[in-house]
Structures are given as C-alpha cells and as structure tokens.
Amino acid sequence: xxxxxxALANPAATYRQIDLAGRTTGADPHRLVGLxxxxxxxxxxxxxxxxxxxxxxxxxxxxxxxxxxxxxxxAGLDFDKGGxxxxxxATFYHGIRQQVVHASLGTDPAPFREAAASLExxxxxxxxxxxx
Length: 132
What we know:
The chain is mainly alpha-helical. It has helices at 2-7, 11-24, 29-52, 56-75, 79-104, 110-131. Helix 3 runs antiparallel to helix 4 (56-75) and helix 3 (29-52) runs antiparallel to helix 6. The mean pLDDT is 86.
C-alpha cells in the first residue's frame, strides 16, 4: 500500500509522468523532438508565471527543466547531416539557455516569455517540416 500512496502524494506530477509516457511510447524521432519543443515552451511559461507570483521554488524547477530540454535539443543535433542549420540551432539553443539562466536570477517574467515565444516559433517550424 505504501507504494501507491507515494505515487499519489503528488497527483499532478504522477499525471504528467503518465501523460509524457503515453506521448513518447512508440513516437518517431521527429515527434520526440516536437515534444521537447512543447515541453520546453511549457516549462518557460510556467517559470514566467512562477516569477510573477513569486513562487521561487517552482520557478527554479521549471528553469532547470527548460535548461535540460535546451541541452537535449542541442545534444541531438547532427552537425554532419545538418550543416549550417545545425550550427545555427546550436547557437540559438545556447543563446536561449543563457537568457533563461540570467533571467532565473531575477523576478521579471518577461525574459521567460520571450524565450518561450522564440522556442515556440522554432517548434512550429519543426512541425511544419513534417507536415510538408
């Protein structure tokens, strides 16, 4: 019984884990990158909301998640096949990471929203590649 009680101690976290597992099981690499974009945008928006409401613990968690996602996106780049596009994306991810880390030191939500908008734009471009 203890095992189940522990899993339900934070129902929102449990739901997010189940949701993410459902979305990633059997997903192709293109879809997985799309999920990273979605999760990165969500983490940055949550960091902005947490900064606004002065929930610094949540802000810190969301910043850590967004940073990890940006590292994962950069690590997944294939510089041999992607050439200049990969180099441009690496620079973009690095710049967004720096912006997020710098913003994490303050309480202004605007840099998180700007980073989310930029990442969302790249994510939309990524999704359109698959659609065409």
